[in-house]
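S.,

As promised, the zinc ion run. Input:
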Amino acid sequence: MKNILEAPFVVELCQMCSNMYRLGWDERNGGNISYLLEEEQLKDYLDVTRVIKEIPTGFDASYLIGRYFIVTGTGKYFKNVEKKPEESLGIIRIKEDGTTAQLLWGYSDGGKFTSELPAHLLTHITRLKIDPGNRVVTHCHPDNIIALTYVLPLEDREFSRTLWQFETECIIVFPEGVGVLPWMVCGTNEIGQATAEKMKDYRIVIWAHHGIYGVGKDLDEAFGLIETVEKAARIYLLTSHLKRINTITNDNLKELAKAFKLNYRKEFLD
Ligand code: 2HA
Ligand code: ZN
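Predicted complex:
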């Protein structure tokens, strides 16, 4: 067996957690990531027939039976993932009952997966049906996005249009817009279901007064979505107390859409 700590998916995930921590998006135990892995990627590093323990998830993820995920652990600090990967991360497989996670590696201090597992796995289910190449779900707490949820109406249209307007690349990066959820109790199946429902229409879902979810085919893609939203939110907030004399107009956005052949959400600009 090769050393799993050198597996590309572990190294990359560790580096991503450190990066996001340094950006200030994952204070204390804030944030969580799940990354769908193929058995093929794992078999050189892990005996997948050896189950360390079984952990009930409390929700039905039958669509994912037999699938493998590497997932950040509950209570773990992104700051420390790179230093303590085996405590901070775990590799799980969804058992045939659809409601049990089989731990194959990690959570070595007796821990378990993130409290936000419902939002992660239910989002994986939604996104895999739309895009079979989706692999990553990322959640974090970027300052400016959270700040924006205190000053803008919590509506998909309002958020999407505002973000598009505050950085030219936004409509190119997320032409479908962003979904916004009202404040809800985190860590529950309800917020998980609501997030997955929004993920039918968007790859980015903002949780009011809490944070954001982004998805993608790899860690970079999910990160890039969040990074772009966070930047536009920052520019909005940098200018919101100043007299605004210029803007990107709806017509400008439509010109961009034409130039880049974007399948953007038309009703957000009408
Ligand atoms: O795991 O971010 O939403 C800590 C969180 C919960
Ligand atoms: Zn959170």
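The chain has a mean pLDDT of 98. The pocket of Dihydroxyacetone (ligand 1) is lined by residues 29-32, 114-116, 139, 186 (CB under 6 Å).

- D.
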